[in-house]
Amino acid sequence: MAVALVERHALEGDPTTWNRMMYGLKLIADAAGQRGAGVLVAVVQQQGLGDLPPDRVQAVAHNLSLDRRLILALPILPPTGALPDDPAIRHVRDGALARLGKLVLELCTAYYTRLARHVTEKAAARRNALGGPLPPELAARTAFKLAVYAEFRQDWATAVAHYREAYAAILALQVGTPPRPQRWTEVCAVAELVHLKLIMLAVHQGRLEDAVAQVRAHLAYFGKPPGMLAPASQASHLGYLVRQHQVAAQEVGTHVDALPPYVPTPAGGGGTTTGGGPAGAGFTGSSTVSGLNVNANVSLPGTATPAGLQQPQLTGGGGGAVAGATGTTTAGLTGQTGTGALPPPASSSSLKDCSRAHLLMAAARLAVARRQAADTMRASRAGGGAAGGAGGGPMLDTAPVRRGQYIGQLVLRNEAAQGGYSPLSDHDYLLFLESEESRLVTPALVIDVMSSALLLLKDSTGKSGPGSADRLRSQLGGMMATEHIQANNLSAARKLLLQVCHQYRREGWLLPLLQALVSLREVAQRLRLPAEHLCYSLEIAALATQLQPLPPSAQQPPLAAAAVMTPPRPRTQHPIALLTGAAPTRDAGVGGAAAAALASCSNRIVDTTAAVAACRSAVQTLVTGISEIKQGIMKASASGVATAQSSPEAATPAGGPSPETSASQLQLPAGGLAQGQTPAVSTGLPRHFHYTVEHLDLRKAQQRAREAGDTRPVAEIMHKHTQHDYGWCRCVALAAGFTYGRPDMDTADFYLALYNQLPLPLPLKGVVLHFADDQGDMWVQALPGVLPPDEQPAPPLPQHIGSALDSATHSFHHLHLNSHLRPHSARLQDSKEAGERPAEDGVPVGDRLPGQVHQADGPPSTSSPSPHLPPHRWTHFSVRLAPRCLGSLRAERAILLLSDHATVVFKLASFPPANAAAPQPGVLTGPLLVPPGSAGGGASVDHAAAPFRSIRVTAPAGGVAAGPGAGGAVSGGPAVSPGQLSLTVAHLGPLPRLTYGLPAGLALLGEHAPLLAVLTVPPGGRQLSGASMEFVIGRTTGGLQPGDIVLVVDDTEGTKGLMALNNERYRIPLPPVEPGTSHTVRLWARSAAAGTAAVAAVLLCPAQVTATATLTFDEPFEFKCKMASEVGVHTLSLPRLSARELGVTALTIGQPVMVTAMIRALQPATLEVAGAQVMLEPGAAIKLVADPNQQLSAQGPGTCSRLARGDVLTLLLPICPTELLDHGRSMGRLNLRWRRPAGQALRPAMPQLHQQHQQQQQAAGQGKGEGAAVGEVEGGADPLAEPCPDPWVTTVLELPRITVAESLLTARTLGPSQVTAGIPFTYSLQLQNFGSTPLELMISLMDAPGFSCANERSPSLAVPPRERSSVAWSLTATAPGHTMLPSVRLLAPRHNCALTTQNQHVYVQPL
C-alpha cells in the first residue's frame, strides 16, 4: 500500500497547481499498480479547517480510479499562531495519524489475505493432483510464503504456526547418508533463515521459553549431521555452527540474562535442565557446545578429534537441556511431513545453557575446532594428501564462483553454459570449501570471534554468582591466548595469560591455573624472559606435586621424560567437575578415587617428574644466577603438538605419557638431573633475579585509577601489576604478626612464618624485614627460631643497604651485604656460649613436636639450622625491635634473600588483613596447597596447624633445658597476633604510675568531695614531657546519672584556674615531670543525686595509664513535713470532678494553714545550718506569711544552728491559700544553706603508694644530707591544705503537693470544755456563707452516748449570701467522766455536698 501525501492548498489551488498534483499522483498510482499495490491519498492540512471539498475529492477519485473513502484529510499541522507543542494540538495530530495507520493496516491485511488465499488454493490443487501430501521442498516454500503474509498482516500466531511448518518440512528433507555437501549447505541456510524468524517472533511475543526451546532444537539437530561429512564440508559446517551460536546469543541470550536468577517451571513442562558447576574450566578443555554430541559425527577422518569438542559441558546446564530438547522437539520435527507443527516447547527452570555467556563460549570453542580442522587440511595438503576429501585434485580457483539465485546455492562461471554459469559438482564444491577454509580460517579469524564475545561479556555480571562472568572471561582469555600463540603473537598471548592466571589464582582453580601456567611458561621461554620462566617452573612444580596422591618419587618413574600436553580421552569427566561437584564425603574410598582422578587430570597437563626436574633446575638457577632457557622442557614443541593433533596414533594415552614416548620425544631439562649427578657447568655472566610480590584488589585499583583521572583499561592495570607477581604466593606462603604483648616498653617482637610449597628445599640466605615509623624506614635481619627471653634488640642494617634491597638493580657484591648479615646459627651459638643445651626453633633435641622443622621421615636435625626452607613445613623467623619513636610501627616488606643472585620481596602492607578465625590464621598469601600424599588421607601436621600455633617451647626444669624424661614441661609458644602488621608504640620506657587520693570522710550530697590524682615517674624512667591528663565520669549506680556529677579541676597549666566540668571529657596539660618525682592534680566532685560514681583519670603520654576512684554520695538530711489548720473550724466545699491524687493535700481558699518542716541529720558529721529559704512555685496559689530565717536568727545575728547525727531542726511555715488550684502541684522548695564547721572540712587522703614514694625520697634526702621536703619536690604547696572551691552547700528539699478548692461554708462548733452531769448546757454551731447565693442546709445533730437533747435535733436553715448564721442545742450530760460531744452533719442538697464536724472532748463532773 502506497500512501501519497499532498497539501490542501494543492488540492484547492489553481489549475496549474492542480495539474502538477495530479501528475505526481498518477505516477505513484502507476508504479504501485505495476507492483500490485494500492494507493491511498492523505491530504495534509491545518487543524480546524474542516472537511475536504467534495468536488475536488470526486475529481481525484475519478482520475485515479479510487474509492472516495481512500482520500482522507490528515490534520497534523498546527493552526496559525498556535504553539506546536500544545497538548491539545498534539492530541489531535496523534489521533489523525492513528486513524491513518489503522486504515493502512486494514487495507494491507485485506491485500495479503487475498494473496495467502491464492497460495493456499494453489497448494490444495497441487495436493489434489498428487493425491497426497506435498513434497518437503514445496511444503516448506508454501508454509514460508504463508508465514510471511501472516507476518505482514501482524497475525503473529499464524505466522509462528506456518514458520514451524516450514521448519519441520526443512528437517524432513532427504539429504542422503552421508549427506551431499551442496544439499546439506542449502538445507542449513534455509533452516537458518526460518530459525531466525521463529526466535525473533517468540521474543517479540514475550515467549522466551519457546525461543529457548527453538534454539536448543536447532543446535541439537544441526550440531549432529545425519552422517559423516567430508573434512572440508565439516570445517565449513563448524563455521555455520559458530554463526548460529552468535545469533542465538544476541537474539535470545540477552533476554535470558535479563531474567531473575530463578525462573519457575510452568505446569506440564517437559524439559529439565541440569545445572553444572561454576563456569571456570580450563581454557583449552572445551565442551560439547550447548550439549551437542559433536564427537560422534564431527570428527575428521584420519585426524584427531578437535580438542575443543571432546569434553562434556563445563559451564553448566547445556547437556541435559539439549538432551531433553532432542528427545522431544527434534523427534517431533523429523516425524512431521506436511502438517508438521512443532510440539509444545519444553519449559525449564534453568536457562543457563542459552545465556549469552555460555552461547558465546560455545561459539568460541567451535571457532577453535574450525581452525584446528583448517590446520589439519593445510598440513595434509602440504604433505601431498587430500585432506578435503576431493580425491587429491588440485585446489580450485575460487574467483569464478558466485552465489546462485537460491539461498545456499553456488555456481561456477562458464561461458559455454546457458546464462554464463553452471552448477558446481560435488567434487568442485569440496575443493572450493577446502580452498576457502584454508585461505580464510586462521587464528586471526578465531580471535575476532573471541573478541566479539569478550566485548559482549565485558559488562556481564553472571547469573551463577558475582564471579561467574569473571571466570568466563578468564576462560575465554585463555583460549584467545592459545590462538595468539598459534599466530606467533607472543606479547598479546602473554598479556592475556597474565590476566587469566591472576583470576585463577584468586578463585583457587588449580587445574586451569596449571594449564595456563604451562602456556605462559612456553611464552616466556620463546620471549627469552628468564625471570618469568624460572618462577613459572617453580609454581608448576608446586601445583603438579600437590595434585598427586603420593610423592613423586613413589608414583612417577625415574627422571627420564618431560611433560607433554596430551589431549584427554573423550567422555572423561573434566577435572573441574571433580572440584565443583558435591561436598567431599568422609568415605575414604570416594576420597581416594577423587584424588586419583585429580592426579590423572594433572598428568594430562604436565608430567610431574619433569616438573620436579624443572623445579630443581630453577632452584639451581636461583643459586648460581645463570639461566639457560631451552626448548621442550615442560611440553612438546609446536611441531610436536601439531603432529600429535594431526595423528591419532601419535597422541599420548590418557593415562599420561609413558617413559618410552616421553624419552623419545623430548629433551631432558637443564638442571633436571638425578640425585647425585653433577650438573654441567654453564657459561655466561650471572644475573640477578628480583621479584616483588604484592596483592592486587582489582576493583580498588580501578577506583583509584578513576579518582586519579587514569583512563587506562583494566587489562593494562592488571598487566602492570603482574609484572611484580609471578606466582610466588603459590611457591612460598607467608604469615606474619606482632606478638600480643611487648616484653617491655622498649622492645617489640615480630614473627614471620614461611611455608615452602615446592617439592624441593628452597635456598634461603637470610630474611630482612622492612619496618617504617614516623622517623623513616628501618631494615633488620630476622633469625630462625623463637626469641629467647633475654635476647637484645637486633641492630638495624645500614640505610644504603636496606634501601637497595627493594630495588631490582642492586648487586650484593658491591654493597658487601654478606658482611652485615648474621648467620642462621647465631642464636644457636649464643645459647651454646650461655651453657644451654642446643635447641632448634626453641625445641630441645629429642622433643619432636608439631610444627618443628625436621625431615619428613626422620628425627629432628641436631645440626645448626639449615639455610634452606624444607618442603611442606613451617619455618619461623623472629626479630626483636627497639622502637625509635612514638606512633605507629608498621611492617612494610619481608625480603627473602634466596642467594646472592635472587631476592623475593613481599609487600606485606598490600595484603588484606588475615582472618584470625581461618584454618590457618595469619596466612597473608591465601590458603595453603595440600602436600603430596594428603589428598586421599589427612594433611600433614604443619599443613593442618596454624602457622604460629605449631610453635612450642619447653620450659626447662631448674634453669636448664631438659628432655621429656627430665621433667621439662611443654608450654605454648609466643602469643602472636595473626596478621597484625602494625603496632602502636605509645610509650618508651617504664610507664608512670597514676593513683587516686580519696576523701578522708564520708561525702555528702551537694558538697565538693576532694580528690588527688598523683602522677609518679619511676626513677629509672624517662622525663615525662608533653603529657596530658583526661578526666571522665565512668559507671554510676543507685539512680545516679553521669550528668549529675560536676568535676572541678585545678587546671594550673592551662586556664590558670579552676575548670568546672559536667558530663564532659576534659584534658589538661601537665608540666614536665622528671624521673623519681611526682605531680599532683587537685579536683573536686559534686553530685546532685545520691548514689555511687566512678571518676576516671587517664594519663596520655601518649600511652594511656588509667586510675579510677569510686565515690559514694549520701543524703545529709531526712525531711518530713506536716500541715494543720485552725482547731474546730470545718469547711464545706464543692465535690471534686476528677479523681483524688495520691500524696496531695487538699486546702481551702482563704483558710490559714501551718506547715511544720522537720529536718533530721542522718550522717556522722557536724553540720552548720546558716539559712533557710522557701522558694514558692509561681503557680502554687499560696502565700507565705512569715520568713523561716527569723526562727534561725533568734539566737542572734551571724550564728548557725549546729546539727549532729540524729538532731532535728524544726521550722514553722505559716501559709494561706489565695487562689484555686484544681490539680496537685508542689508548694515549692525549702533551700537549706549549710557547711561543715571550720577545721572539720573534708580533706583527701594521700595514696599509699605515694606515701611510700615520699618516705623513699625523704630517706634518700637524709642519706645525702639534703632534707628535701615533699612540697619542694612537687614544686608547690601541700595539696592537703588546699581548701575546696566553695564550702557552703545548698540542699533543696521538696515541699508537699497541694490542691486549693473554693469554700461554700465554714462551720465552727462551740461548747464548754467542762460540764456538770444533770445540768443543761448550750452546744452551738456557727455558720458563714462565702458564696454569692443563699445556701440551704439540712443540719443533723448526731447521737452521742451520755447526752440528751432538749430541742429539735435536725433543723433546716438557709444562710444568706455573705452572711453568718448559728444553731444552738440544749444538751444535758447523763453520766460523769471524759466523753465526746456529739458531731454535727451538714448537707447541702442543691450542691450535693456534705460535711461532718469532728467530736470535741468534754469532762463531765458529777453532780
Automatic annotation (TrEMBL):
Stretches assigned to the Trafficking protein particle complex subunit domain: 361-541
Basic and acidic residues bias: start-end ranges: 827-840
Bias-annotated ranges (Low complexity): 1250-1261
InterPro entries referenced in this protein's UniProt entry, alphabetically: TPC11 (IPR021773)
Region feature Disordered, mapped onto this chain: 644-665, 822-871, 1246-1283
Record organism: Gonium pectorale (Green alga)
Organism domain of life: Eukaryota
Name of the featured protein: Trafficking protein particle complex subunit 11 domain-containing protein
